Amino acid sequence: MRKFLAPIALGALVVAVAIPAAAHPRHHHGRHHHARCGDTQKGYEVIFDGSKRCLERWRYAGGASITRQKDGTLKTGPGDPGLGVLWYAARPYGDFILKLQFRDDAPAADQRANSGVQVRFPAPHPPVPGCPTTFNGSEQNNAAWIAVNCGHEVQINDSPDGGTFDPRKTGSIYGFADLDSAHSHPTDKGVWNDLEIKVVGQHYTVTRNGVVINEFENVPGLPFPGRPNDPGSDSRGLVGYVGLQSHGGPNDVVSFRNVRIKDLSDRD
Fold this sequence. Notes:
Blueprint (H helix, E strand, L loop, with lengths): L5 E3 L4 E3 L24 E2 L2 E5 L3 H4 L2 E11 L5 E15 L7 E9 L9 E8 L12 E2 L2 E2 L5 H5 L2 E6 L23 H4 L8 E8 L2 E6 L2 E7 L23 E6 L7 E10 L5
Antiparallel strand pairs: 1-2, 3-4, 4-16, 5-6, 6-15, 6-16, 7-12, 7-16, 8-11, 8-15, 9-10, 12-13, 13-14
């Protein structure tokens, strides 16, 4: 996810982003329920409203791409080799609830898209002490791997179970608390879905279209399953940034819109 198609102020970033309207069970038309960048509604701050101005608060690291569409949605797609992350650089968060909408737009009829939402990771400006840019110990030379190795990814992937498809389905806390299709509540392609990620302390709760589909406690000492040479649960801290992942494959096309967040850190 390295290159956007719209220039960004504040540190030079180029990005193209898009954001449509409402998710699966609801049908909203037009750009976001009239909420604008920086507005707060019921405690949720709008951090992406589909506008170029709002995108200036975001930065990009890695390969692949995320582009802003004419309708104000963000769309992941191919680009430079490797995955990428579009991250909200205005500030990190401790405890929070993140809400957004996503849609699987994989172009091939028999394929589904792979993406994710990454949370609580350090700013991806290597070198970051204790946070390598590796895949199971193999150097990737890609700053986006900081978000992977020192934050948690909430997976987006509605592919069928079995075969060569990634077994970690939507709502998985990638590698640490994985879901199959029976628990991820998949929808058809082209359908907007509501996704909510609540993180309090080290407890993660994932809600899809109003249904809690996953909960996970990030206890110390857990290795990354299948990747013993990468950081385990101890590298996932209590404060970090949030971002959207671009996986980079030709069918890994996911659209995002209506991104908002509620800061819970100052609450009792």
